[in-house]
Each structure stands twice: as structure tokens, then as C-alpha cells.
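Batch manifest, entry 17 of 40.
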Amino acid sequence: MAGRIEDYGLIGDLQTAALVDRTGSIDWLCFPRFDSPACFAALLGDERAGRWLLAPRGAGACTRRRYRGDSLVLETEWETPDGTVRVVDLMPPRGQAPDVVRIVEGVSGRVPMHTELALRFDYGHVPPWTRTVDGELAGVAGPDAVWLRSDVPVEQRDGLVRGEFEVSAGESVAFVLTHAASHLPRPRAADPHRALAETEDFWADWIGRCRYTGDWAGAVRRSLLTLKALTYAPTGGILAAATTSLPEQLGGSRNWDYRFCWLRDATFTLQALLGTGYLAEAQAWRDWLLRAAAGDPSELRIMYALDGSRRIPEVEIPWLPGYEGASPVRVGNAAAGQFQLDVWGEVLDGLHLARRSGLAGTADGWDLQHALLDFLEGAWDEPDNSLWEVRGPRRHFVHSKVMAWAGVDRAVSAVEDFGLDGPVDRWRRLRQEIHDDVCRHGYDADRGTFTQFYGSQGLDAALLLIPRVGFLPWDDPRVVGTVTAVQRELDQDGFLLRYRTDVDGGVDGLPGDEGAFLACSFWLADALTGIGRRAEAEALFTRLLDLSNDLGLLSEEYDVAAGRQVGNTPQAFSHVGLVNTARHLSGTRPASDTGAPARGGDPEAPADPGPAASDQPGAAPPRSSARQRT
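Output type: C-alpha cells
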């Protein structure tokens, strides 16, 4: 069976990624892209679905493992009765073709080793035809071909490729697995030792540009490396996670494919990248966002494929039993066709943040924003499926309306602060109309809190973002009451649920439950900072850091009863949350996340401690530089 989710480390080449567990088994790999069908899918079943084991003969979990410095080169070590051995795993940044490089290094003694390669294309469904060509093993099935180059002899038997060998102190044995389209000539395999040196240099150069130097520098650097690893280099898109169908509830059916790019992640991701010095990555993400959102604004999708494609049909894979039996296994995501009003606001907010941060805009970009605003003006009062992609009835979700307000607010600021052309008086009236509507219908005065949707008895962790986007100031009693209520009612052993699945008759229309949502828990830490409860915020942040695995990786959620990570992994939204909360606690208030830099044009500069927006409900945020949002 697959290991625990936290047992996996990540290696990748900025176009795809592999997950390696503590036993030395690569249990997940999609060639040639993140969203391609997997050739190793043991993560969602067992070894019969494909994997590549490389470990001491008869060994179990490793003794220790680590990334080599600030890189994506993974070292796994075993201490055995015969000696100590290390396996170094990496995927060099893409050259002619994707490569997985595995190097066995003898540390002490003489250790018997075993490798077992089970190639199964199409998510474990199609075993390849294998043969030996010029000393290399070739496997072909349909559109896919792989080539294995090995320093030691291997043999094919019963659909498996096996090898037995020994390694002594100071010796090394290398393997290189290379993929190509089956109709193309055999690609040139990477030289393993040169690839190792070049990969280390690549990551060292990249992380050397990080500007964050606060108290949590190690965790922030690892999260940034993870975000970079989840970037699809050809387009600049950042996918939500490297996996599909890892369950939000162990044994449950809330299993989704996250190997796509969500528009709502744009602003948070831009905050993290701009605030830590990664302008090139922020611009690539912004440019991907512009291309994806281009076209008819009424047809805006909540998510897109890595290349900006908008059709992401969802199908079930019946031959895979699912992670620890959690079924169905899904490929694609039907939520791509949902109407989620907040996305229009988040796109406008993200593009405004890019403008404030000095990323060069274009006339075409402003034309697109005009079109998005025209659609928003006629659609903001419609019910939607919410940012959580509920599969129940559409409702008037408060967060969706707040983000519609934020989109219009950013347009007003673009005219006022940058001199861009637009019907600013009309937009000001629309902004006020939305604000009044939310405060009238989305706030429960008896309970002293905003609610998940109009008339709801439930709450939503996204309500914590109300002051963060400038809708109300942090010291507004309605904000303080909402933060307190959300913390109390969505608590799960000190962490935060997105919402209660059993309130309002089951708002999401799905069976089962889910774990604490890590991004929301980071939002809570930000909100506690914003309302002046910094010590409590820092304590929560410390507990969240402790949920990372030994390699610093976080999945989507955490099951407090089982004490385990759950959901797809590694999760970009969780790592973005970690980076932004560390920045806030290191001196930048949550209120400073959108809008203009607080001081001197530096997106990382601490903001003025004043509130983020006017004390007058519904008023536009003031233009005084001391109270602008970064």
C-alpha cells in the first residue's frame, strides 16, 4: 500500500513532478506534464499500478532523509547491518526530454541493493512492451515511450524490471529514466552526475534571490521552492497540487484532481512571490492569468489547464481502488464549469496588485479588465457556487459578493491613482451598492458576525478575508465579531475548517466530512494579527509549521483525529499561506496585501498600523499613502 501522505517527498523539473516515499519507492509520476496520465500510480492503489523501488535489499522505511540544501535534490539514507547507503533522487530542469535521475551512493560498509521498476501507463492500466536496445531498456505503450539506462544489469520478468547489486563506501551506481513520445527518436539521456551538479546549481541560484530574512526563513524558502516546483515553466501557470484524488477524508469520496491552475489563487500567489523578491515568476504568473482570462468575460473559468485550455472534463478511473480505498479516483475536474462570482473580483484584484507592484501593464490588459467589470456589473447579484466549489444549490455567498466589491474597488483605484480611463462615477456607485447589499443581507446582528451566505446559519473561513481586501477596517466591530465567531465555530482542535458540512442542510451537496483546511488556518493567523492578537497568531502559526512533514511539505488539509495530512499534496495554497503569514508576522500587516505599497514602493515594507479602509461603511479606501494597501 501507499505510504502516509506526509511520507512523500517531491522532486520535479518545472513541467512535471514525482513523489518519493520513505521506502525509496517513487509512487507517483506523470509524463510528460503534471496533468498527463500517470506511469507510476501506486499512490492510488499498490505497486501493481506502477512504481519504482530503489532501496537496500529487504529494507523498509529509511533512517533519515533531507533535501540537499535549499534544492529539490532529495537524499534518502538507510543504516543497515551491512553499512550505510544513500539514494539521491532528482529531476533536472527540462532539457530535450524529462529525466528521473537516481544515484546510489555507498557511505560505509558494503550494502546489498534492490531495484524494481513497474511501468504502467494510463494510471496503471497499460503495461508497456519492453525490450533492450543498445544496452538500454525501452518500454513503449501507445503515445508513450520510456528508456532506462542503468550502471548495473537489470532483467525483465513478469512485467517487472529488477536488478540486484551491491555498493561499497565511495562507490556510486546511477539510473536514468527518460520519457519521449513514442513516435520520436530515442532522446539523449541525461548524464547523471552532471545533471546532479547542474540541478543543485539551478536551485541554489533561484533561491538565492529570496528577499525574506525573517524568523521563519527556512520554512519560507522551502515553501517558495515548492511553489516553484509546482510551476509549469512553458506558460508560467502554477498548479494547485501535484496529485489527484488524495482524499479530504480518509476512506471518503471527496477526492478531486488538483493538477490545474485556479484563478482565485492568483492574488495570494502574487503576494507571496512579489513579497519575497520573485518578480520574474510573478510576471509570468500575471501573464498566464491575462492569457487565460482573455475572451468573453461571461465565459471566465475558475480554473484552466496548464497551457490555458478551458475544457477539463471529469472522469472516474474504476481500475484504481483509491488512496487507502478512498474512491472514486477522478481525473479532470467538473468544477471548472461552475459559476463562482468571486473569481472576477480575484482576477481584477490580482491585476491591480501587479500594477501597484510595478509590473508593466498593457492597453490590452486594461481593456480586459473593462470587459470583466462590465460583466460583473450585471452579474454581481446572482447566486453562485462559492470559492469552495460546492456541488449543492447556488446561493448568495458573502465572500463572493465581497470579492465582487473588491474587483470594482480596484477599478476605481486604477482610475484615481493611475489615471486610467473608465466610468469611475458609475463604478463608485456600484461599489457602494454591493457594499450596502452585503452589510444588509450578509451580516447577522444578533450573532455579531457575517454569515456564509445570505440567511445562513453557518460560517465560512473566507469571511476572514473581509478586512484583508479592504471591505471593512480591522478594528470594525463587525470584523472583530466575525473573526471571533469563525475561530469559535469552525475550530477543529485549534485549526480551522472551511465551513461545517452539516449546517444549512449540507451546503456543499456532498457526503462525508473533511479535515482542517490549512490555508484557512493561515488566514486565521493573519486575522488574529490584524485585530491585535499577535501572540495568539504566532502560536497558531507555530502549530501549523509543526504539521509540515520532515521535508517541510504540506498537503491541503489535516485530519486532527488521525494526526495525518490529507488532501492533495504538496498543496500550493497551503505553502502560499505559510509564506504570506510569515511575512505578516515579520512586520507586514494582513491589511497590506492588496493595493499600493505602504512605503517607498516596496511590496514587502511594513504597512502603517492604521486600518485598511475608511471607517465609514462602504466608503472607498482612502488615498493617503499611510493607509494604502500593498
